[in-house]
Design a protein that fits this description.
About 40% of the residues lie in helices and about 15% in strands. The protein contains ten helices and ten strands. The strands form two sheets. Strands 3-4-5-6-7-8-9-10 form an eight-stranded parallel beta sheet. Helix 5 links the parallel strand 7 and strand 8.
Length: about 280
């Protein structure tokens, strides 16, 4: 992947829609700060914002969309559902509530995900069927999953009308590469998104990472975001600090060399910050 890739570059989803390669995550962003942080991100060139029902800040993301003055079709908004309601119809309504919070009664969400397969196969089926209905109605332009292992994806295939899922959002960084499920996704046309790409700053003193950052005159965070881009993943860095929001987007003017990518690939695989998927589990 060459440095000619820009912040405006996108990954093509199975639905034919395009996912901006760099996303802005709002996990753990306090609701009173979320709108301001999103506006800051949009100002420096992000066009892809990733929220979730669980985060409690969908409405604040929607407010940023309104205040930005940018045409809605130039923005890409993702949200997620963590648990279903009692049946598919009630779950449909819960999903529709996200659209209303983000984009109003007549709006849409660009991408909607099942947040976590660990809620169980029956719950995932209920959510997917509700999401398929909203996808068919144009309320969800694309639908996908997060934290799904190979077994979960195979189970989804057994009943899904829409398959493959547009994306699988996973915890990904040099110390948790989840190679088996990433390879499965790439073989099956599922775009891979990377959350926690900055490892929550826990590797800021890592010698290899600092050596590469120094070589390019970049921060360790910028190297980690760029690493994801060069792996073909869509990274979702998160910050509420305006300076770091801008820095994390400034990753398109340099390229990590092959040897340094290999050094990052060779990092020991560690316990997840959030979730490492179980590729055998289908439940």
């Amino acid at each position: 992947m060459s440095p000619s890739i820009t912040i405006e570059s996108a990954l093509k989803l199975p639905s034919g829609n395009k996912l901006p390669i760099l996303g802005f995550g709002v996990w753990d962003s306090p609701s009173h700060i979320t709108t301001k942080s999103c506006l800051e991100a949009l100002k420096v060139g992000y066009r892809h914002i990733d929220t979730a029902q669980l985060y409690g800040n969908e409405a604040e993301v929607g407010e940023a969309v309104k205040q930005s003055g940018l045409p809605r079709d130039q923005l890409f908004i993702t949200s997620k559902i963590y648990t279903p309601e009692s049946d598919v119809q009630a779950t449909y309504q819960k999903c529709l509530d996200s659209v209303k919070k983000i984009d109003g009664d007549n709006g849409y969400v660009d991408l909607f995900l099942i947040h976590n397969a660990n809620v169980g196969a029956d719950s995932c089926k209920k959510m997917w069927q509700a999401m398929e209905k909203l996808h068919g109605e144009g309320k969800f332009k694309s639908i996908g999953v997060s934290n799904h292992g190979i077994g979960h994806l195979e189970n989804l295939k057994s009943y899904a009308k829409v398959w493959p899922p547009a994306v699988n959002q996973l915890e990904l960084h040099p110390w948790l590469q989840q190679r088996e499920v990433v390879e499965y996704c790439q073989k099956n046309g599922i775009v891979v998104e990377a959350y926690c790409p900055l490892v929550r700053n826990q590797k800021a003193n890592d010698p290899t990472l600092n050596e590469i950052a120094k070589k390019h005159g970049k921060t360790t965070a910028q190297v980690l975001v760029r690493y994801c881009v060069q792996k073909g993943w869509s990274p979702l860095p998160k910050s509420d600090n305006p300076g770091r929001i801008a820095q994390n987007a400034d990753v398109f003017g340099f390229e990590i060399g092959k040897e340094d990518m290999q050094k990052l690939d060779a990092q020991p695989q560690e316990a997840p910050l959030v979730i490492a998927v179980d590729n055998e589990d289908r439940k």
